[in-house]
């Protein structure tokens, strides 16, 4: 027979909630370099910044961070738009030749990763 304390005890259930931040950054690949576009935090990305007229591709980075000491941040790249006037081979070659930000994006953060980290 269970004691009165055991019968009235509430189950021990610990809920652990981690806050999660999701930030999207838009990057436009141009012959001048990478140009930063719009961004959003914790909501879908709706571009309000017009893309450069000479863009060849538009990529979106999605960065997911957790409010936990040992949690690793995740960064994913996805191709959002590709110029129909440039072949995949031309776009790949341009991606390989561009190493930095366009002059107007010099202060933009975060820097796009080296081409070896971006998806083909």
Structure in words:
A four-stranded antiparallel sheet has the order 2-1-3-4. The model is unreliable at 115-120 (pLDDT under 50). With 120 residues, the protein is mainly beta. Helices cover 12% and strands 32% of the residues. It has one domain (23-115). The chain has helices at 4-8, 88-97; strands spanning 20-30, 33-41, 57-66, 74-82. It starts with a helix and ends in a 23-residue tail after the last helix.
Gyration radius from CA atoms, angstroms: 22 Å
Domain count: the total is: 1
Tell me how many strands there are: 4
List the total number of helices: 2
Low-confidence stretches: 115-120
Oligomer: single chain
Task: Compute the separation of the termini in Å.
Answer: 67 Å
Roughly what fraction of the amino acids lie in strands? 25-35%
Strand order of the largest sheet: 2-1-3-4
Average residue pLDDT? 80
Structural class: mainly beta
Quickly describe the structure.
This protein has 120 residues and is mainly beta.
How is the secondary structure organized here?
Blueprint: H1 4-8, E1 20-30, E2 33-41, E3 57-66, E4 74-82, H2 88-97
Antiparallel strand pairs: 1-2, 1-3, 3-4
């Amino acid at each position: 027979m269970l004691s009165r304390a055991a019968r009235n005890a509430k189950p021990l259930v610990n809920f652990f909630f981690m806050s999660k931040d999701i930030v999207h950054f838009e990057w436009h690949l141009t012959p001048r370099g990478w140009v930063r576009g719009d961004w959003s935090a914790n909501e879908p990305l709706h571009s309000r910044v017009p893309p450069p007229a000479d863009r060849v591709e538009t990529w979106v980075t999605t960065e997911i961070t957790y409010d936990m000491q040992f949690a690793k941040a995740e960064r994913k790249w996805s191709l959002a738009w590709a110029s129909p006037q440039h072949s995949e081979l031309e776009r790949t070659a341009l991606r390989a030749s561009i190493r930095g930000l366009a002059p107007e994006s010099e202060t933009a953060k975060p820097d796009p990763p080296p081409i070896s980290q971006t998806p083909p």
